[in-house]
Specification:
This protein has 188 residues and is an alpha/beta fold. The chain has a domain of 90 residues: 3-Layer(aba) Sandwich (Dihydrofolate Reductase, subunit A), CATH 3.40.430. The protein is 24% helix and 30% strand. The strands form 2 sheets. An 8-stranded mixed β-sheet has the order 5-4-3-6-1-7-10-9. Strands 2-8 form a two-stranded antiparallel ribbon.
């Protein structure tokens, strides 16, 4: 049986997946969100990410390492890059092959769920290729406005989604989990 591909995207209400000048988690890291992060990190998984996300995370100064840092180093990770040749982060391999082809093989022959960290471009490619089994959107209660960077769903193909679950963390952050249906979206 094929393993699942899980894409997590953290967004502002106005659709930005990143920001300039706003803190991590858009400034809304609370105890329930922290618990969710730790629970997700504890689960067996193979992490897939792009070069920019890898470089940002691997380059964080030690004083920025939080409670989850030790687990992030333990997990096996695959970084998709055509320019990197070496990964300094433990348990990390660089893959220069085509993302879609490699993930199809990993999905068919692997034993651990594949999960993205950041890597918006990578997530978009996996969604467009129909390889995503679960899309989890963590919507933070703010309009990033001019501070917004990286429109989460820019240039995406249309896709019909089924709500698989939802919950509110810390009384303000909405986690919605979707499954792609494979159907066309409703049209006029």
């Amino acid at each position: 049986m094929a393993v699942s591909v899980i894409v997590d995207i953290f967004v502002s209400v106005d659709g930005w997946a990143g920001s300039d000048g706003l803190p991590g988690y858009f400034g809304y890291l609370g105890p329930e969100l922290q618990e969710w992060i730790m629970d997700e990190l504890a689960a067996p998984q193979l992490v897939v990410m792009g070069r920019r996300t890898y470089q940002a995370l691997a380059g964080l100064p030690e004083e920025a390492h939080g409670k989850s840092w030790g687990r992030t180093a333990e997990l096996d990770k695959v970084v998709f890059s055509r320019t990197l040749t070496h990964a300094a982060w433990p348990n990390t391999r660089i893959c220069s092959r085509d993302l879609v082809d490699e993930v199809q093989e990993m999905k068919a022959g692997g034993s651990l769920p594949l999960r993205t960290w950041g890597s918006l471009s990578l997530a978009r490619q996996l969604i467009s290729a129909g390889l995503v089994d679960r899309l989890r959107l963590m919507t933070f209660p703010l309009m990033a406005g001019p501070a917004g960077r990286d429109a989460a769903f820019a240039d995406m193909e249309s896709a019909d989604l089924e709500l698989a679950g939802h919950r509110v963390l810390d009384g303000r952050v909405l986690l919605a989990e979707y499954r792609p249906t494979g159907k066309d979206i409703p049209r006029a």
